[in-house]
Amino acid sequence: MLQNIRDNSQGWIAKTIIGIIVVLMAFTGIEAIFQATTNSQDAAKVNGEVISQSELSQAVDMQRRQLMQQLGKDFDASLLDEKMLRESALKGLIDRKLLLQGAQDSKFAFSEAALDQVILQTPEFQVDGKFNSDRFDQVIRQLGYSRMQFRQMLAQEMLIGQLRAGLAGSGFVTDAQVLAFARLEKQTRDFATLNVKADPAAVKLTDEEVKAYYDEHAKEFMTPDQVVIDYLELKKASFFDQVTVNDEELQAAYQKEIANLAEQRRAAHILIEVNDKVNEAQAKAKIEEVQARLAKGESFEALAKEFSQDPGSAGNGGDLGYAGQGVYDPAFETALYALNKDQVSAPVRTDYGFHLIKLLGVEAPEVPSFDSLKGKLTREAKTQQVEQRFVEVTKQLEDASFEASDLAQPAADLKLTVHTSAPFGREGGEGVTANRAVIAAAFSPEVLDEGANSTAIELDPETVIVLRAKEHRKPEQLPLASVDAAIRGQLVKEHASAAAKTKSDELVASLRDGKTALDSLSWKVTEAATRGQEGVDPAVLQALFRMPKPAAKDKPSFSSVTLPDGSLVIVRLNGVNEAAAPTEEEKAQYRRFLASRVGQQDFAAYRKQLESEADVKRF
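RE: above sequence
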């Protein structure tokens, strides 16, 4: 299985880890989930390994941000149940810990060079198609990682990925299973349908029936519980015109910006691994043999293609592209930065084997002018001041609202305008009253019953409001006259559908008993229908392929399907047509599909086994 995982992991790493990075990039400002922290409280222990409360809180935050990213700017975080979020996040952390333990116990591994290649070849870390260390640092800082923390996270994901790819890739099915699936998949059916229309016009309702329905469903015919609120709105954008920055501050920011620029070096290497099959002495002898051939004038690129065991770079003559400091193994990096252009190092030992390193080129950093960065630096400096000012004024608004008996005084103190909403119910309204946190606050006992001002409510990272109830409109019974038409429409539909169902059942019973001739009815006939047949209602298709095979050609099977408008469709199954034997190409497609499904089931079973055998303690 280990070899299978190795065979399947190379392509997976490049694709899956890049996918992970793309997802992570959406969550700027997230702290590292697996950052080493000290916390006296543990969230859980998995086979003795701790999951801290800090890890759990950060995982919950990531889930919340992920939902916000998926659902867009109108997503209301207050809709989320915090307890459910925490339970889901903790389960995810436990599953991850179990998979890492499983991968480590099974001795799965990959080379440091493979990890380097993932980073170097990730588009999000590149500028003009080349790895850019400044871009790399910028992205991982936004994610809340240091370079080592990010590498550790990727290493863990790659281990889990190897495990998943190996198990999923080792799924197989027998020829009999492939043929059985093909027989069912390619089977067609001959059938006919007959529509039994619901006839609303034939339904006669009395006023007594309508009144009885109204009385029986009285709770459904109430005016909504509504409230009108006054509120103060504080927007971060309003502070940008209130803050200034001077040239001295901008110059300091500029010097800090250009100080982070670093030289880029383009390296190539030849790697001979030290592993279970090749010991230290053997790997060293091999790298020295390659070194001797280099000394005789052979091409570094050709020798890399022939001997290097780094699958990511060997095909490119060992070329790793441009990178800055902090990307490679420390010993590798030290040797690289000691080289002159086109010079090759002596053998360098890292945790993964021996390297010969060649410096292909050096790129000095391009230092932008102060004028080219002034706009950006100004925005960043003002943004920082605005953030601080927004936090301060939010606290002032909350304190002033807590102490006041209405919103007039806080509005005057902070030069804000009191806004009044339209009436809205517990399902929400428009604008700010569509926000679940606003709805919850407006209908809370403190605001609605006690007449207090609310605490500060964050609508989004840019907006905070404080509200109070201005008017409470309690539910009242709607008069029968106002809901009479709706009740009649509902009852007519129910009665018409019931009559159609009775008629359909009677007709099917008569057909089965032979009392009604098939030819006397206007059937719509379809021959050789497939499971994805176009032009047939999906509900009818689903019912058709669930029906039993007719006992004989003159003994069709019958079923019925109710449509959304209350009408029914009688389905008559005339015959089942077995398909021709699948071609070799079709069998190969079915085999891949079924093997993939089996592989996914195997991986799910493996996770279940890890969970059942684990010692998991939740605190």
